[in-house]
């Protein structure tokens, strides 16, 4: 019993500082306030109950983000997103990202609103990688653990996701459609 | 010797502090001598900062925070409960259910937790349902307030029904209102949660009553059959005819709303 209560307080110590980040990520994933509320509650409950399976000393943040994301993927919205967001990419291969001068300044010059709208338009697999990398400032290795994908795939999605954001904000007609979540370079 | 294109493929990794040490010095050396690559590196660095600021967008409500942390505490205190002391003899049939002084807190917590879940689910469903109902009442009121409450003006159901063909993704039957106290004024296409539906306007004396017909979707979260008389509008809803959701909204007396609903039922 003592062990249990200790693990409970340990869980609380680790999870409390991540509450805001997890909520923010849940909202971006689901795009809906009520659903994000449910996701966070469910993820915290699952994580606390499954805390015994967490290996002390390993990355707790990656572990609990993975639980949240898996909870989302099995939700109604998540299942629907899965069906529409298939990527035609060579997993693991680092895709050559070409640079064009006008678009290189587009992101930094964009307003906060425009940037948020562009992030919303981004196909989900790129959006989640960009959020974890730039907003949560996770290392590629950590992102790979959250998403259960190889590091090489994380790298190519970071590069392509940023490229798509630049194109989207530079007002170009990029060779991808947000609805199909597909792109061709 | 790497060319600019090859260095540019490493800019993202460099900005994310993920460039292997073996590449790091060479990358910096290149950027110091190449204005184009330096500009791009700066731009990605600034973009990353801008995305970080824009990405911190949502804050949890204090209610959610309180709920999550209360649930965490509850779960912990549940784990705190000492195990019931080992009993000297097996419990008899008569007393197996009787909570003992050490065991009852677990029972209590389990029941309380179950109640919380049930009440929570009930409240969430109620909230969704009353939101959907309120939106439909709003549609009815907005329609009455508009200059053209109906798009097809006809008292003839044989005119109104075909008018909807191709405009809504389903067909439905209209009742014969002759001989009833109701008269059909017409209809229009309406939208609820991006779903096109039919809105029919009936008159009963000086009351106008809307009948909404939609395909039943998950978003249309209403109980299978229901009547609400809490507001000044009466609402009756049910599902019929292979997944069509009917919602009758009006300010007439409940019996009148019921009577029109019955007519629509018979039409099927």
Short account of what is shown:
The complex is a heterodimer of chains A (185) and B (268). Chain A is an all-alpha fold and 185 residues long.
- Global geometry of chain A: globular
Number of domains of chain A: 2
Structural class of chain B: alpha+beta
Strand content of chain A: under 5%
* Spatial ordering of strands, largest sheet of chain A: 1-2
- What structural class do helix, strand and pairing data of chain A support? mainly alpha
Number of helices of chain A: 11
CATH architecture of the largest domain in chain A: Orthogonal Bundle
Separation of the first and last Cα atoms of chain A: 57 Å
Mean pLDDT of chain B, nearest integer? 79
Offer a few descriptive terms.
heterodimer; A: 185 residues; mainly alpha; Arc Repressor Mutant, subunit A; 11 helices; B: 7-stranded antiparallel sheet; 8 helices; 47% helix
Commentary on this structure:
- The complex is a heterodimer of chains A (185) and B (268).
- The longest helix of chain A is centred in the last third of the chain and has 19 residues.
- Chain A is mainly alpha-helical and 185 residues long.
- Chain A is built from eleven helices and two strands.
- In chain B, strands 1-2-3-4-7-6-5 form a seven-stranded antiparallel sheet, sandwiched between helices.
- By secondary structure, chain B is an alpha+beta fold.
- Chains A and B meet through helix 1, helix 2, helix 3, helix 8 and helix 9 of A and helix 4 and helix 5 of B.
Give a topology summary:
The complex is a heterodimer of chains A (185) and B (268).
Chain A: H1 2-15, H2 19-30, H3 33-49, H4 60-73, H5 76-84, H6 101-104, H7 106-109, H8 112-121, H9 124-135, H10 140-147, H11 151-169, E1 176-177, E2 182-183
Antiparallel strand pairs in A: 1-2
Helix pairs in contact in A: 2-3, 2-4, 3-4, 4-10, 9-11, 10-11
Chain B: H1 4-8, H2 11-15, H3 21-33, H4 35-55, H5 62-80, H6 104-145, E1 152-153, H7 157-163, E2 182-192, E3 195-204, E4 207-215, E5 226-228, E6 234-240, E7 244-250, H8 254-267
Antiparallel strand pairs in B: 1-2, 2-3, 3-4, 4-7, 5-6, 6-7
């Amino acid at each position: 019993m003592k062990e249990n209560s200790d693990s409970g307080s340990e869980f609380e110590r680790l999870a409390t500082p991540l509450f805001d980040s997890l909520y923010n990520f849940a909202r971006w994933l689901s795009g809906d306030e009520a659903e994000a509320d449910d996701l966070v509650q469910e993820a915290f409950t699952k994580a606390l109950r499954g805390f015994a399976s967490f290996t002390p000393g390993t990355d707790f943040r990656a572990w609990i983000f993975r639980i949240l994301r898996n909870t989302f993927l099995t939700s109604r919205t998540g299942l629907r997103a899965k069906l529409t967001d298939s990527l035609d990419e060579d997993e693991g291969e680092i895709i050559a990202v070409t640079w064009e001068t006008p678009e290189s300044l587009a992101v930094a010059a964009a307003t906060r609103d425009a940037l948020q709208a562009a992030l919303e338009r981004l196909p989900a697999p790129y959006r989640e990688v960009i959020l974890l990398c730039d907003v949560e400032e996770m290392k590629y290795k950590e992102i790979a653990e959250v998403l259960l994908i190889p590091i090489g795939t994380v790298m190519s999605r970071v590069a392509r996701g940023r490229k798509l954001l630049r194109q989207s904000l530079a007002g170009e007609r990029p060779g991808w459609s947000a609805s199909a979540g597909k792109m061709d370079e | 010797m790497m060319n600019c294109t090859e260095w540019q493929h490493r800019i993202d990794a460099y900005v994310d502090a993920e460039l292997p040490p073996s590449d790091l010095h060479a990358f910096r050396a290149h950027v110091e001598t190449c204005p184009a690559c330096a500009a791009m590196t700066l731009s990605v660095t600034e973009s990353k900062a801008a995305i970080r600021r824009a990405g911190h967008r949502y804050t949890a409500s204090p209610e959610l925070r309180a709920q999550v942390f209360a649930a965490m505490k509850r779960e912990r205190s549940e784990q705190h409960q000492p195990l019931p002391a080992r009993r000297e003899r097996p419990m008899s049939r008569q007393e197996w259910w009787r909570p003992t002084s050490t065991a009852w807190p677990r029972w209590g917590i389990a029941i309380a937790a179950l109640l919380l879940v049930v009440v929570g689910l009930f409240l969430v469903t109620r909230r969704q349902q009353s939101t959907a109902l309120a939106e439909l009442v709003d549609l009815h009121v907005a329609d009455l307030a508009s200059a053209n409450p109906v798009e097809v003006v006809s008292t003839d159901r044989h005119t109104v029904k075909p008018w909807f063909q191709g405009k809504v993704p389903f067909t439905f039957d209209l009742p014969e209102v002759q001989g009833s106290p109701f008269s059909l004024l017409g209809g229009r296409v309406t939208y609820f949660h991006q779903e096109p539906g039919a809105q029919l306007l009936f008159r009963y004396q000086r009351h106008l009553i809307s009948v909404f017909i939609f395909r039943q979707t998950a978003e249309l979260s209403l109980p299978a059959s229901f009547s609400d008389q809490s507001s000044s509008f009466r609402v009756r809803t049910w599902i019929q005819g292979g997944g069509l959701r009917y919602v009758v909204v009006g300010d007439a007396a409940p019996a009148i709303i019921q009577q029109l609903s019955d007519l629509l039922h018979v039409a099927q």
